[in-house]
């Protein structure tokens, strides 16, 4: 791809298998909050926590609520879905104390990530990360798996996150590239693909799961849709 100076990547479920790690961590967390739960029941509640049907994480990324409130609200939603006892006042802390070590130990990098990052850097491209996760959580996740970037922008950098255009622009400014010459790679269509397109970047939808409607939606914002970072290497013209 000509006219390209940099690549910014989402972290969760783009670089790291966060869904699996979140489920593992949440299972430990919900069993700490509700010790009587069976392993199977805890797994189901953990999935509900991860899927965030109450849409509390987007409120956190917009800066409307803090991290503790977001976690507590997601627990309350999961409890309501499964008819569990009401969440106690200290539930977010109890959940987090159990969640953190289990989540930490479950971190895994997708196999195509390191070759892709090496290929981009060898091609002279500036490479950074832009995520809606918190600064502390992001630093821990990247340290555990041994990934590092000169530029890492989180929800905490500006106090809010994607899909706000100024967040993408700020990340490009730190990377030293212009938005129109910077690729953004992410797995969530409304947040990553539509958001980066609206910010004037080159959007790439990393569709690892092969969602059936991805191609039409991606075309609507002139995004590239790929199933792996190895495939993206070919699109960008870097050695994979």
Automatic annotation (TrEMBL):
Any GO MF annotation of the entry: hydrolase activity
Keywords for the protein's UniProt record, in alphabetical order: Hydrolase, Magnesium
InterPro entries hit by this protein: HAD-like_hydrolase, HAD-like_sf, HAD-SF_hydro_IA, HAD_sf
Cofactor names: Mg(2+)
Domain of life: Bacteria
The keyword Hydrolase is annotated on this UniProt entry: yes
Enzyme class, first EC level, given as a word: hydrolase
EC number of the protein: 3.1.3.-
Keyword field contains Magnesium: yes
Pfam families associated with the record: Hydrolase
Protein name: HAD family hydrolase
């Amino acid at each position: 791809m000509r006219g390209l100076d940099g690549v910014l990547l989402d972290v969760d479920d783009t670089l790291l298998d966060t869904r699996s790690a979140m489920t593992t961590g949440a299972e430990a967390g919900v069993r700490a909050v509700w010790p009587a739960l069976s392993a199977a029941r805890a797994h189901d509640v953990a999935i509900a926590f991860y899927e965030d049907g109450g849409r509390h994480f987007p409120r956190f990324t917009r800066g409307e609520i803090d991290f503790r409130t977001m976690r507590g609200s997601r627990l309350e939603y999961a409890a309501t879905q499964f008819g569990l006892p009401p969440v106690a006042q200290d539930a977010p802390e109890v959940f987090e104390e159990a969640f953190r070590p289990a989540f930490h130990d479950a971190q895994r990098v997708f196999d195509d990530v390191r070759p892709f990052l090496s290929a981009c850097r060898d091609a002279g491209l500036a490479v950074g990360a832009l995520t809606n996760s918190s600064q502390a959580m992001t630093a821990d996740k990247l340290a555990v798996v041994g990934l590092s970037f000169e530029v890492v922008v989180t929800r905490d950098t500006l106090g809010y996150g994607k899909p706000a255009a100024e967040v993408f622009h700020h990340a490009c400014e730190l990377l030293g590239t212009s938005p129109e010459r910077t690729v953004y790679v992410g797995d969530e269509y409304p947040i990553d693909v539509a958001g980066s397109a609206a910010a004037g970047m080159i959007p790439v939808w990393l569709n690892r799961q092969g969602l059936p409607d991805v191609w039409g939606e991606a075309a609507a914002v002139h995004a590239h849709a790929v199933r792996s970072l190895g495939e993206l290497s070919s699109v960008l013209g870097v050695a994979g």
